[in-house]
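Bit of a strange request maybe. I'm writing a small parser for structure token strings and I need a real example to test against, not something I typed by hand. Could someone generate the tokens for this chain?
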Amino acid sequence: MPSYHLRGAFSVLALVLAIAAPRRAVAVHTAPVPRSISGRVNDADGKPVGQVTVRIVELKRSNKTGDDGRFTIPEVPGGTYTVVFQIIGYRPQVRRVTVSDTDVSLDVTLKASAIELPAVQVSASAEATSAVNSPQPISIAGTEDLAKLRSPTLGDALEDMAGVRNNSSGAATGKPVIRGLTNTRVLVVDDGQRLEHNQWGDDHFSSVEPAAASRIEVIRGPASVLYGSDALGGVVNIIEPDLPDGIGRTPFAHGNVTGGFASGNRQPDGAVTLEGASGGWGYRASGSGRTAEDVRTPTYVLWNSGYHNAGGSGTLGYKGSWGSLTGRYTLRRDRLQLTDSDSTATGYARTDDHRGHLDLSLPLGLSRLDWTAGYESNQRSEYGDATTTDAAFGMREKAYTTEARLHHSVRALSGVLGASGEYTTDDNFGEEHLMPNSNTAGVGVYAFEQTDVGRWNLSFGGRYDYRHLNAVEDTALGNAAASLSWSSVTGNLGVLYHVTEPVAVVLNLGRGFRAPSGFDLFANGLHEATSTFERGNPNLKTETSLNTDLSVRVQSGSAVVEIGGFVNAIQNFIYTVPTGQTDPASGFEIYDVTQGDAVLTGLEGQLEYHPTDYLHLQGTADYVRGQNTTTDEPLPSMPPFRATYLVRLEGHRVGSLSSPYVSVGGETNARQTRLNPAEAIFFASALDGRGYEPAAYTLINLTAGFSLPSSSGRTVQFDIQLRNALNQEWVDFLSHLKTNAPNPGMGRSFIARVTASF
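Reply from user aminoacidic:
Good idea to test on real output. This should exercise your parser:
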């Protein structure tokens, strides 16, 4: 990699970090006295509202109001902050405040709302905004939904969102598909740390535990200005719960434990979390695990489809008047059986993922410097049969990432100046190689600004990225050594206009970019997990896109509606197609990586309506059309039209039962009729010549639950689900198993869960 590129980019990182040094030196002698933010929360009638969560987003600190509606958050460093007020039954309030040399008084009036609205989003802009003011389309999965579902994969946890699907190779492997794009076009970020281990194919899922998050925010559309390469299709931002602190409070510790069982694959699971704080110190430890037998479809048991995973994390941090420092370690281990077209095959795969992450935040006057550093070691291996421990194929990836962000606020303009760097190595082990050993380095610098002018919310930004990849010679694969470089300039412009208080019109223009991965360029071998022989293309160019979003949002006390459309024009779109040829040694279908211009267009809609406090109606609909404009053919693996719907009844209390609920919901998926020609040929020859034919299907799900108070004054939550209640035969069009087994979707499954706090 040319050294002047690295010197220039990393000098920006050094400059941003150096800004803090002289000010910190002065601060030793003239440190301002930390101030407090305090006030009172009332309802529309002027009555105090107790148990309201008051949170300072940037500091990740919170407190609750007392019965008199009053709150205090002490020892707040100087700076400009977003303060959020949230409680069920009321519409969240978001306020921007500046803390300098005096205490801040902040009184708020909450408006009643039957809808539980997300307070803010932090992923699609430089500073936190309400969801309705987000410059890009964004969906949010909250703590309650994630905890009740406890999905084993990220794709499964998010697939009910409008515009989001699940690209899976079975019940335990699933990656999000956003508007028809997946794999390295959708970036996964775990609390600020890029996860780089998606490079080895679209079946390789992210090694995260979705239920451990406080929420997951999904940006639908390019977000390369803030996130760089791989955010061409969208971003999945996994946000961890705030680490508790004991500032101004007595030391404390608490936690929760949960256990469940699913009948559809005989899967027990469990998780435990313990957290506490003393003064500025806070800590959290958690662990989870699940194990499953083969999937029961409505008509047969799907062979070799069981799995086992276990993991956990530990976090320790300190918050003070000088800022905060947090460190986190995460571990996840999976063992996945691989369903092959041969029902007697017993191959399996293993993954081991270790991650470390540091997060430093320093106040600089009214600005703030955030710096993160991360390390990840991800090892994946595949085995020919259940009895062997010698890997037929394996890869190790090590990734080092860092980023510095200088947040600032000048009059009505607020934003961020940032610089990021990353370095990854990919190495083979095992008998077979899928791609050669390689290393990749990348740096980026960017700026993103936002401002409010009357009814207008404006946002704009720009970014420069440079990436370099080295691949070593691999004679077994027939690949020569290679050294490749790419650079890209990206930008975005967002305009939001508030027609009235509850109605907004949003227009966003964004340019995204993705450099080819080592897998795209150099793959040349068997891939057991997908039962394919894959061949890369070393002549690939950088993908670039120009995306236009237009949507209308309505958010009132009883309804939330968003309807929008998008056009995403991608130059040099990289995709794989079946060649119609078979590898003679393995019998696997040969897939080639190729490239051409493409246009993806689509519509998305979502509705949540609460005509009364106890009746909730929800629904989504989405459609995406992908066209290869170079060949004038449909793009392969495009999801068909889908609609989801839910009717939910809930109450405050029935006898001794607290917060009881019952719901009926489901999804209807249309038949995909727009097939790529090569895709259609491959489908026709699948399943031992019987062929796979895309089909429409509808799944109905039932849920119910309630909580009971325990003797200690805490609660025990009970939740049950009946998935695929009508025992419908089905297969998702994006499932890799659709050509390995007939209708491999899980049949009727009863799921029971108990969660207790302590």
